[in-house]
Amino acid sequence: MNSRAADPLISIDGVILDEDGKMAHISVPKKLEKQFRPSLTQGSVYMFTNLIAVDTKQKAYIYHHQDYMLQFQHTSMVNRLQTRGGTIPRFAFNLCPFDQLPSKNIRSKPLIEQTQQLLLWSEHGESFDGDNIIQQSKNGIVVAIFAGLTVGNFSGQIEASSSSATQVFIDSDLQEIVKFRESYQWEPPALQRHLPQILQKSPIEAAGQIYKIEQLTALQPSSFQRGATYSCIAKITAIVPSIKWYYKACLSCKIGYNSISETPRCDCATSQPMPMFKLPLALTDDTGSIEAIAFSSIAEDLVERNAYQASQNMKIHATDHAASLQTAVGKIRLFHIGMSTDMSSNFSIKYVIRKSFPIDKPPSTSLLSHNEV
């Protein structure tokens, strides 16, 4: 897991398999990177001892096969095995039908079956060889597994998008791909009528309907339920000085500290606080203005520095915003805007910036509508 900070590492995360093919999420906190990173290699067999189980029911953007993950601590041990593990599969997937996407909202899961669109961002879209896939599809089905996708609600529709953890397996010898291919009955004549559609789109093109701020503010809170977001193009006109610009979170799991007692709310064995952006911004277009919050890496990208760097010479009071944070002001961006629908929250700003893209030179994306993949 990475951020746009000067030191981009957040943690080392992975999925481990045992001899019965059972899966679990493991995580090495950033502070233990040097201790364990040299000992871990994908595809190798290990015996782990002295790990701790951490509750993950409330955590997003991680593997959610169980309600816990295994986290390394200083006393954990990693022993590589040479004589065991021959029966452990190299890959394993918890495949999810497209019609179950709503239940996986804001969670990463692989997908299978049914016609559906997949959105591949940045390097995943740029490296996807669409011309070759279409050519192969003319002679037979093309079967792929897209693992590590993030599922979310965009403009009122559930979509699956690539993430930093996404891996793509196309026509490989994986058991799941072989089994799916053998079960498929279409011959080349029928396949010609069901060729994949692969479109290269900029973020603006992929955004679909672009809302004006006036339209966004007219939407009812119910329109933002289940994490729904809406696109708008706006200019950052100010950093709102009425609230704190960062909060304290656990370095390992990123769960925020209690704002009153400044104590951790997570179950990590050793929780170390770190600053995280909670940057209030004023967004303006030709129809009006709204105030929205940019968190974490979204804010880092806008102010061009991370919260730890910015906090070194700053106080948390609203009147002490550093001039360096003003680099965000004046930028015109494509924003995906959501809303905090927690009615119990006392936070005055409800709109949240979920994604942000420059519109002068946007990153490339691929939009897939595939009957075979």
Automatic annotation (TrEMBL):
Superkingdom assignment: Eukaryota
N-terminal signal peptide: none
Entries under InterPro entries matching the protein: Euk_RPA1_DBD_C, NA-bd_OB-fold
Stated name of the protein: Replication factor A C-terminal domain-containing protein
